[in-house]
Design brief:
The chain contains 8 helices and 11 strands. The chain has about 220 residues and is of the alpha/beta class. The longest helix is centred in the middle third of the chain and has 15 residues. About 30% of the residues are buried.
């Protein structure tokens, strides 16, 4: 079965190039020229969104935020001509899984798409606990005291990675290497942003996520 990708890009020429390249690589595509139009086209068959940042009306960042607030974990790759550190952090903070700076090569984009889809389809299974925190690796859901808590795709991946390796400290570089394959623009600060969001959502249980200078981050239950 062909993987289905939604392209949200207001530049008609670039949209056509993306459509051609993706379909030639074996993907099925949908096209939208605005965030609002993209929302209307969302369906359960779409596996990934290619999302332009600078769109008329609602921006790509705003759309990603709306989707994450609704509990949508569908992978999002941002496309943008802006590649400053601040822009990168904004993209990841809004729930993006990767960030491709324009202009980009077709080969680079296809590699990024393949890596993100591979992570999304991780074969890890089971229910893992850490204190009153539980992660269902089959359903990709997180529970605190039995109640589901919504996380963005990347927040979930970091939490799932740490809970499967409880008690082990990982540096920012190690986390990036494990979870951002083929993403050369990811910086250490990006990990810190996601960790801060995870801690906020863990609320009274934020102490489970431990950080130590010179060691990195770890998820561990300490009575």
């Amino acid at each position: 079965m062909m993987e289905e990708i939604l392209i949200i890009e207001d530049d008609a020429d670039l949209r056509e190039i993306l459509k051609f390249s993706l379909e030639r690589a074996g993907y099925k595509t949908y096209e939208a020229e605005s965030a609002e139009n993209g929302l209307e086209m969302m369906n359960d068959r779409i596996r990934l969104i290619l999302l332009d940042v600078m769109l008329p009306g609602m921006s790509g960042y705003e759309l990603a935020g709306v989707l994450r607030e609704k509990g949508c974990k569908m992978p999002i790759i941002f496309l943008t001509a802006r590649s400053s550190e601040e822009d990168l952090l904004s993209g990841f903070a809004s729930g993006g899984d990767d960030y491709v700076a324009k202009p980009f090569s077709t080969a680079e984009l296809l590699a990024r798409i393949g890596a993100v889809l591979k992570r999304s389809a991780s074969s890890c299974t089971g229910l893992v606990h850490c204190g009153l925190l539980s992660v269902d690796l089959d359903a990709e859901k997180v529970f605190l005291e039995g109640n589901e808590v919504l996380f963005s795709r990347k927040e979930y991946e970091i939490l799932a990675f740490l809970i499967q390796n409880q008690g082990i400290f990982f540096t920012r570089s190690q986390i990036i290497k494990a979870l951002w394959l083929d993403a050369p623009f990811v910086i250490d600060r990006t990990v810190d942003v996601h960790i801060a969001h995870i801690r906020s959502k863990l609320a009274d249980h934020k102490g489970l996520l431990v950080s130590r200078v010179g060691f990195g981050y770890s998820l561990k239950y300490e009575q």
